[in-house]
Specification:
Layout lengths: L2 H19 L7 H5 L15 E4 L2 E5 L5 E3 L3 E2 L2 H13 L1 E6 L8 E7 L2 E11 L3 E6 L2 E6 L7 H4 L4 H4 L12 E8 L7 E6 L2 E4 L7 H10 L7 E4 L1 H8 L6 E7 L6 E7 L4 E5 L4 E5 L1 H4 L14 H6 L1
């Protein structure tokens, strides 16, 4: 075979390959979007509101997030939303339709819409999102989770169940008043630079700090409508004690009556006419007397 024939054969093979490739088209648009953020927001700090399947969640001036203008949302749930917004990325553009109706999501700033779309998951297998009429397969890299569930808001599961939204730097006063034994009452009042407890000349600062720092950790297991509880219990029996707390942020102020039973302890909130349910183990360390804060208490001296 001569050199000229070899060259002709090579040219013909190249032409055949080019003809074959002409029957195929390559869509690179999907690959171009891979790894790009689905929400595509430059500054998350501007987001001050969400609408999730018609449920409005709005940030207040005092930093709280309210659901439908009445229920405080747990900060953890808000953190989960922002984390998902930041991390959700596009795997590829998809020709498939959304597997379910999903969650309709709107992100707002000062009432103006920053983003509008839908996120829909098919179990924990795959998540899809739709925006601007386009459907994308989505992921949070390194995590196998149902992204739709992160945005599926409900009052029962998203409500902030913290009883005392305060801290030792912002609490103004705390009163714990026992119905049957008022001689054990506790009245804590902030007086620069620290707190004072009524009836105590030498304050145990460590005990006071310990008590106040534990208050924000207390959470109810659930809230219930208190109409029947008011009729069956509040109107008929005296509470074990009454508690009121005032904070520098007035919306954090709270007051309630305490009714302990064998299996549960009930906090009745007159302002909202609700009942908070807790276990006895949750509250046993809160029911102290003023002696707990007294550095001169003889029981403390005997333990030294």
């Amino acid at each position: 075979m001569t050199k000229k024939i070899k060259i002709l054969i090579g040219v013909n093979l190249c032409l055949l390959a080019a003809i074959g490739l002409s029957f195929f088209t390559f869509d690179t648009s999907s690959n171009e979007k891979k790894g790009k953020p689905f929400f595509d927001l430059l500054d998350l700090s501007t987001v001050d509101g969400f609408v999730l399947n018609g449920i409005k969640i709005q940030r207040e001036e005092d930093g709280r997030w309210l659901m439908n203008d009445k229920v405080d949302v747990a900060p953890r749930m808000i953190g989960n939303i922002f984390q998902a917004i930041q991390q959700t990325s596009i795997v590829k553009q998809s020709d498939a339709t959304l597997p379910t109706s999903g969650v309709e999501i709107k992100l707002t700033t000062s009432g103006a819409t920053l983003f509008e779309g839908i996120i829909s998951s098919s179990g924990d297998v795959a998540t899809f999102g739709e925006k601007n009429g386009e459907v994308y397969q989505l992921e949070i890299p390194g995590q196998f989770i149902n992204i739709e569930q992160i945005f599926d808001a409900s009052e029962k599961s998203w409500r902030d169940k913290t009883v005392f939204r305060t801290s030792w730097r912002s609490m103004k006063s705390f009163g714990l008043h026992y119905t049957m034994h008022p001689e054990n009452n506790v009245d804590i009042l902030f007086k620069e630079p620290f707190y004072e407890v009524e009836g105590i000349s030498q304050l145990d600062s460590a005990a006071t700090y310990q008590f106040i720092s534990a208050l924000p950790k207390l959470q109810v297991k659930e809230y219930r409508d208190g109409t029947l509880f008011f009729q069956d219990t509040v109107q008929k029996f005296k509470p074990f004690c009454e508690i009121e707390m005032f904070d520098m942020v007035a919306t954090y102020n709270t007051s309630f009556k305490v009714f302990p039973f064998d299996d549960n302890v009930f906090f009745y909130f007159p302002l909202t006419k609700e009942v908070g349910v807790l276990s006895p183990d949750q509250v046993q360390d809160m029911f102290v007397s003023w002696h707990f804060f007294d550095a001169n208490d003889p029981r403390k001296k005997s333990m030294r």
